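Support case: user asked for a sample of complex input and structure output to validate their parser. Sending the pair below.
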Amino acid sequence: MTAHELAPVRELTRAEAEDFVYAEVALLDEARFQEWLDLFTPDGVYWIPANLPECDPGQHVSIVYDTRELLADRITRLELGRAVREVRPRMLHLVSNVRVVDAAGSEGVEVLAAMVVHEVHGAHTTARPARCRYILRADPGGWRIASKTVFLLENDQYLPNLTNLY
Amino acid sequence: MHGTGPVTDTAVRPVAPPAHPWVRPDRVHRNAYLDPGLFAEELDRIFNRVWIYVAHESELSRPGDYRTTTIGRQPVIVTRDRAGAIHVLMNRCTHRAATVCQAASGNSATFRCEYHGWTFRNDGELVAPTFSGGYDPADFSVADFALAQAPRVDTYRGLIFASLAGEGESLREHLGRAAEYIDLAVDLAPAGTIRLGAGTHRYNYRGNWKLQSENGVDGYHPNFVHRAFFETSGLGAGLFGPGSNGRAGSLGRGHAVLDFRSMMEPLMRQRLATPEGARAVDRLAERLGDRDRATEVFLANGTQGYNLLVFPNLQIIGCQLRVIHPRAVDHTEVDLHPYLHDGATDEENAARLRVHEAFYGPSGGGGPDDVEMFDRVATGLAVQSVEWLPLLRGLRRELVDGEARWGHITDEQPQRGFYHRWLELMA
């Protein structure tokens, strides 16, 4: 019996993790939000902490702390195109430094990545640096996101609107 | 308190406010948002004079606790000294003017300027200049070089305010009828006190500070700017429409309220009818000693039932204390401090944070749309041939109620009240 068969979740190689994250952020850059939402597990969480590198969202406000249901609402607003700010974004995620830090954790596979998100708002282009942490779980259809946490390096600063998905 | 309240007259304001070339009782000139000279005057005549919110007592619960903020553009440190007294120290070394405290908050008995090493106690006193042998007593006395501090500091229901003017009206006089709405919010907490400490949302925009002060009590815009949120949140489009039974008022002294309790009342009555609702009112009645008041407090649902503007730059809205910092005539920074209820469960307080995040902050479902509008206003104000921004809505249907004036929820009464006080201070 191999370790692979014993593991609660399938192991993930770095190359597979990179492929997954590249494809995932491409869905955001291409505004394919429903397909992106479908990557999340039913109990999935999309989290952007505020003020601190990490904190307990039960005790501390977050920039975003979306369950799958809230995330679906957010995407509905984006797609309605009726929220005045949320016009179709022009953005580009650059992902690097991908590491599989826990290939067979009980919650899922933990993947870290570094990211720079470039966005164009009118005449302004911003480059926003962030560290990302994914917890991924295998299901028959492929890998699913149990959580995606985006640690913006500037999350204790005065920020402009952050209404896109990161 | 619900509905239109005591109405004495529909007459226009009895006392004509002083005149200013750029602000009239029913309109504002574009220069009021654009002129750097006027901005400097606002800092001097408004922010250096009236009571300004600086911190909440829960942030300074132990001796030595401090937090930094600004009054207008002036950096200050709000401290609690060894004896428990609160000080609002100017964050400016009395030697070469460097700030002596860089952190947002912390605990320290002293502040050491990193430039030449001068150290100050948290009551402002200078311990000693470094290498003190170089100072001759003929020129130099330690007592003359304490950190400057706000001459007046006072609190109301845990909110700490400072005034940089040595004399003037008391905090209680300044708050006037705004105090009723602070009470209504704070009384809702099971322990009768609120606390900060759950972090801060911070955002900025390239526009004048008054745009945010006006917007927080503007009931005309939600129907348009926030329609996507109302549609997706289940609150329904049209909540802030011509048929709404909410009201907007100026409370006197520049304070204003957007009171939509009556619009939320059917929902709150449903909650009141649940066992949890009944228990909550029982607990409130026990503490407040008055069941009618307890029911009123419950139905108000704190600042989820109304938006309060405390002139000039504090708003209590949703689950947040919002502080508007003027940075330049066209640059504003805003802090949203979600407040928690003392005595509530962690789950209840976490739910408040989620409610806050749903609408507010840089990624909220509503707040960013307001910021987008400030950007568009800033761009539109470049048009020179159209000079005035009217505040005419509901001008002829103001209801007079003592110092207060009430209008329909979509009326511009809050903004007229804000500028009435602005004129008293600026003209």
